[in-house]
Every structure is written in C-alpha cells, then in structure tokens.
Amino acid sequence: MPLAVKDFTWEETEKMVFITVPLKGVKANKVDILSSEEYIKVNYPPYFFETFLFAPVDDTVSSAQIGNGAVVFQLLKNEPTLWGQLHAVNTGDKDFMRKKRDEAIQRNQERAESERKEKAEKKRESEKYTLNEMMRLEEQERGRINDVKEEEKKKAMDELERWKEEQRQAAEKERQRILEEEMAKEAARREELKKQKKRKGKNIFEESSGGNPTREVGKIEVKFTPRVFPTPVRESQTPLEEEWLRKQAEAQKIIEVEDADLTEEEKNPIFMRDKGNAFFKSGNYQAAINAFTHAIRYSPKMPSLYSNRAACHLKIRNFFKAIEDCSKAMDLLHPPVPQNADSRCKALVRRGTAFCELELYVEGLQDYEAALKINPNNEQLKQDADKMRSIIQSSKG
C-alpha cells in the first residue's frame, strides 16, 4: 500500500505558490508527476503525494524541478491573492477528489495528444521544407548541367560550322583551279585548231606547178594508246580522268622516313593498310587506327587510309574525327570519276552516319542523298534516308 507523504512544505506569495516534496532517497528517474490547474500528484513508490489546490493555477507556465532529493513546484496563480491554505475546501469529499483526478488525467491525456500532434505537424513541416529544399537544389543542379551541355553543344556546333566553312572555301578554291586549268586547256586546243586550219588551207599542188614532181603515194600507220577509262568518246571526261590518274600516281609515291626501328614491310603503306583491315575485322579498332595512321605517315594522299580510319572512329564513337577523315578522303577522291564511285559512296555514308550520331540529321541526310546519287539502287541507303527525313520532319513539327 502506498505511503502518503506528510512532511512536504509550501509557501506562497500573491502571485506564486511553492511546494517542496521530499523524495526520501528515491531516484529521480522513478518519479511520476501529474499536474493540472487544480490537482498535483507525485508518485515514487512506495511513497505517494497528492493535493487538491485551493484555487486554480496557470498550468501552462508553471513548472516542476527534480533535484537535491526533492521535487519543487513553482505554480503561477490565475488570480493574484493570498490563499491562506494549500488544500481545497472539499478535500474530504471522495466524489470531489475522484472528479478532480479524472479531470487531471483527461487534461494530461489531451495535452499529450496535442503535443504529439504538434510535434508530428512540426516534423511534417520540417520534412516538407527539407524535401522542397532538396528539390530546389536538384533543379538548380539540373539547370547548371543543362547550361553546361548547351554551352558544349554550342561550341561543337560553332566548331563544326567553322570546319564546314573551311571545307567550302577549300572546295571553292579547288573548283576555281580546275576551271582555270580547263580554260587554259580549251585556249590551247583552240589555238591548235587554228594552226591546223591554216595548214589545211594551203594548196598541196602549188609546189608541183614550179616543175617539182608530185609526191608519191604512201601509207601512214596510226597507233592508239589504250585508255585506262573504258568510257565512250562522246561521254568522256578527259580532263577529270587525267587529273584522277595523276592523283593516283601521287598516292602511290611513298615518303621516305628514316626510322631504324621499322622493317621494310612496316614502311610499306599497302602492307600497313592490310594490317589495319585485319585489326578492324578482329574488333581491335584502336590497333587498326594506329596502323592506318602509320600508313598515312608514308602515303598521305591515299584516300582509302582515311576512309578506313573513319570507320574505326565510328566504332569507338569518335564522331568528329570520323567526319574529319571522311572529308579528307572526299578531297582526295576528287575529281569524281567512275573509278572512285564506290570509295566516294563509302566515305559519304560514313560521314553521314557520324553526323546522325551527333543529331545533325540535316547534314547526315545531305551525305546520304549524295551517296544515293552514286548508288541509286541501294535499298538500305533509301531506308536510312527516309528515316532521317522523318526525324527532321518530326523535330520541325
């Protein structure tokens, strides 16, 4: 049975009430306190203290401190006045006492529930604020990354535009040079025709009138040089064919590079090209690139070396290098003649593929359409070109 504590002390002022309850050696963590506006209970087995206050107090600002072997209550009165006694007048009434206990318990439960809800609401607000802050920071980071991507894309596009302008200027210079050569050849041909007309205008019988004998009949043998291009004369493009043959001859010339560590085979660009092709077939694309680069060192005007190296760059997704190599191959494959049609078609398709991988579908479509002009019966090229047109149309839409 609990033992009621009788040796408590209390003091009062007009505004405050101070109650000191001794703990009698009981540890502070075993003390249970229940308080309300009109009721105070301290339970620390086997001891028990309770009091029904003479008048209500403000329980929200009152306090209870445990320390130095006692519990000290500091209670703020609702109405400033001197009570004269601590206990309520009806302390002996059991119904009154039971009612006040129940009210105190209910009030504490309501207060605990209110505090729990308030704490949960604060926790939700804190989590909501934290989540919003995280989302804001993530949005800032996404914006920063997008800005970096756009800047890199802009730089790449500017670089590509500069490169295309350089290629256009180079092509224009080459076209002007070819045009000047054609004009010079045409002028020379006309001059030769004039000379032939003058020679034909002379009377071959004028000399015989001076008493000289008539020339004897003879036979002239005419031998024709076999043509490399089996093109009919009416369709012949002699200047372009001659220029292509000259470029082929230049491509076969091997640059002498002094390197004692290389064998004679390693100094042969044809051997290194075949070796690069073997590496490509086996899937060793970096070794193939090294082989083609080594071959270009000895034969920088062989277009197949650049075109094959571009295919390797496509495999390892070096798209800008693939575009550069294909463009170099196209320069070396000029002028366009039937003998280099297949090589030009391959270079155009590879460059168009690199453009598409960079999402530059308009440039890629231009190369594919140029390849289709060379090989109009290639169904795969037609299908790929149609796909690009669909992508371009959808992006415009």
From TrEMBL:
The species this protein was found in: Pinctada imbricata (Atlantic pearl-oyster)
Domain of life according to the entry: Eukaryota
Coiled coil: none
Family matches, as Pfam families: CS (PF04969), TPR_11 (PF13414)
SMART domains in UniProt: TPR
A cellular-component GO term for this protein: neuron projection
Subcellular compartments: Cell projection, Neuron projection; Dynein axonemal particle; Nucleus
GO BP annotation list: cilium movement; inner dynein arm assembly; nervous system development; outer dynein arm assembly
InterPro entries the UniProt entry points to: CS_dom (IPR007052), CS_DYX1C1 (IPR037894), Dynein_assembly_factor_4 (IPR052004), HSP20-like_chaperone (IPR008978), TPR-like_helical_dom_sf (IPR011990), TPR_rpt (IPR019734)
Keywords from the UniProt entry: Cell projection, Cytoplasm, Neurogenesis, Nucleus, Repeat, TPR repeat
CDD domains noted in UniProt: p23_DYX1C1_like
Subcellular location, principal: other
Region (Disordered): 102-127, 189-216
Intervals holding TPR repeats: 269-302, 345-378
Gene3D superfamilies for the chain: 2.60.40.790, Tetratricopeptide repeat domain (1.25.40.10)
Official protein name in the record: Dynein axonemal assembly factor 4
Domain CS: 3-87
